Amino acid sequence: MHTCPMFDWEAAWHTALYGPGGFFARGEKPFSHFRTSVLVGTELAEALLELLSRVDAALGFPPVVDFVDVGAGGGELAGAVRALASGPLAERLRVTAVELGPPVDLPGVRWTTEIPGCTGLLVGHEWLDSIPCPVVTGPSDDPWITRWWPSLRAGEQAEVGAPRDAAWAAAVSSVRGAALAIDYGHLVSSRRFTLTGYRDGRQVPPVFDGSCDITAHVALDACAAAAGGDSVLVSQRDALRALGLSGDVAGSGWDWLESAARAGRIAELRDPAGLGSFGWLLHGCGVAVADLLPPLPPWSPIPASVLLP
């Protein structure tokens, strides 16, 4: 990695991902390089549809209800939500995928590069981790570091999460209903430098030539404070159970086999040493978070010894 003090990490990171010839700008999709919850199966979309139905009810069933997928990648989540929706909700549902890279032709999904106004549920699934940040070497007088990374020591590096905070606050401000960020990250009590790259399913050094995805853990507590309002930060493991994904196996014969396969996918989504450790930052925007999720334990990030894509 380039360590010159004058190196503009944020600009180089942005160019490597979104500039001419950048990793995502040229059409690379996450499924080719790392496994995410949306690639496990349709179960995450099922859970988010349940959450959307609760938002819909809390809003009083508006004529049009939105599902906005920010950082949509290949559109797997947006497409699954559109395909799985049924009943009166499906008739009023408008699904939007927000992505800077080339769009994918999916039935019933509209694509845009700008976050639209949303009456319903906005989801940033592994979006914030791809927003480029400045990198500083401690000690630093950067105000974000002073507040959110007080443990930074001389010689250590840190990602300054202010651009993620601003992006999330802006996204939440566009919503009437609820906004949900799903990501891996850390808290002020457990910060560590996590900038890394991914290519073809492998973790690689984060080079800024457009050859790999570049990502870093998200300071979800800082994002929550930046957006303000009524919010809760819980684990994916707990949130999925609260939305009806328990992974129980039932039936016999083929039904049992299908149930067991589904249980395996849910177990992967809820694995406390893997995807289940992701944080769910849920903001109520004109509706109460308590009407959407029951009380759940606060989120505890995955241990520092384990890094996720």
TrEMBL record:
One of its GO terms (biological process) is methylation. InterPro entries: NDUFAF7 (IPR003788), NDUFAF7_sf (IPR038375), SAM-dependent_MTases_sf (IPR029063). Gene3D superfamilies: 3.40.50.12710. It comes from the Bacteria. GO terms for molecular function: methyltransferase activity. Keywords: Methyltransferase, Transferase. The keyword Methyltransferase applies. SUPFAM superfamilies: S-adenosyl-L-methionine-dependent methyltransferases. It holds the Pfam family Methyltransf_28. This is SAM-dependent methyltransferase, MidA family.
